[in-house]
Amino acid sequence: MTSQRTRERLVQRLLEQGIADAQVLDVIGNTPRHIFLDEALSHRAYEDTALPIGYGQTLSQPYIVARMTEILLGAAASLDKVLEVGTGSGYQTAVLAQIAGQVCSVERIKPLQDKARQRLRRLGLRNVQLRHADGGFGWPEMGPFNAIISTAAPREVPPELLSQLAAGGALVIPVGSGTQQLQLILREGDADEFSTQTLEAVKFVPLLSGTTR
Ligand code: SAH
After folding, report:
1. Atom 11 in ligand 1: which residue has the minimum CA distance?
2. How far apart are CA 169 and CA 162, in angstroms?
3. Which of 38, 56, 104, 111 is the most buried (most CB within 10 A)?
4. Torsion over CA of 68, 74, 76 and 82, rounded to 10 degrees?
5. How sure is the predictor about 5, in pLDDT bands with cuts at 50, 70 and 90?
């Protein structure tokens, strides 16, 4: 159930669903998703479905992890420094860490962050920095970022995330309450010039303000 063969079947399904980037498929094929779940659910880790991680939050479906990563790879001028809003289990963080230079990830629920930190350490991923904070404000001290990914949905795109995008940077974010759309926002130059593309309907947990211990 946690074997390489099971992961290869997941990669095959992602290919059939239209994920085409070889690097993304390779990283997903080599990242143990079962360690990002509590033991009682780990046997379901390679199903292409979102799964609960406690505190009312979910580990995103592999398809959406692959899709958002692929979008950033295709759209951002570089992935030297990436910000993730919503560390959750740390699975998306782990995938990004194997593709980007440096990953900064913010989570508002402390126990989720603590677990994610242990898992990322277990995988030996050292290019990740985690912060317990409201990621709606980004991580100003670490920015600007070449790419930003939000795995929680705000009603409207937080202006702080836009201002922390580097020139040529890309932000991928689900937006809306109820029905959400995945948006790709590009910062064209140094000036405040942004272009927005709406990509597909998605379902994420809401971006909430403040933090919990
Ligand atoms: N990438 C995660 C997805 C977890 S679900 C994974 O693969 O497991 C989204 C996460 O966003 C939740 O853990 C939730 O607590 C977090 N979140 C919601 N609002 C947030 C905010 N304002 N700042 C930081 N994290 C937030």
Report:
1. 86
2. 9
3. 104
4. 40
5. confident
Phi first, then psi, for residue 57 (nearest 5°) are -105, 165
Joined together, the tokens standing for residue 196 give 């927005």
Ligand 1: atom nearest CA of 55 is: 15
Residue with tokens 């904070």: 133
Residue 1 banded pLDDT, cuts 50, 70, 90:
low
CA dist 51 and 4 (Å) reads: 20
If residue 116 lies in a helix (H) or strand (E), which one and from where to where?
helix 110-122
Concatenate the DSSP letters of all residues of 122-177 into one string.
HTT--SEEEEES-GGG--TTT--EEEEEESSB-SS--HHHHHTEEEEEEEEEEE-S
Q: Determine the length of the chain.
A: 213
With vertex at residue 122, the alpha carbon angle to CA 58 and CA 89, rounded to the nearest 5 degrees, is: 10
Active site residue 60: yes
Judge if pTM exceeds 0.70: yes
To test ligand 1's pocket by mutation, which of 34, 67, 108 has the most ligand atoms within 8 angstroms of CB?
Answer: 108
- Confidence at residue 3, expressed as pLDDT on a 0 to 100 scale: 75
**All structural domains of the chain:** 63-202 (3.40.50.150)
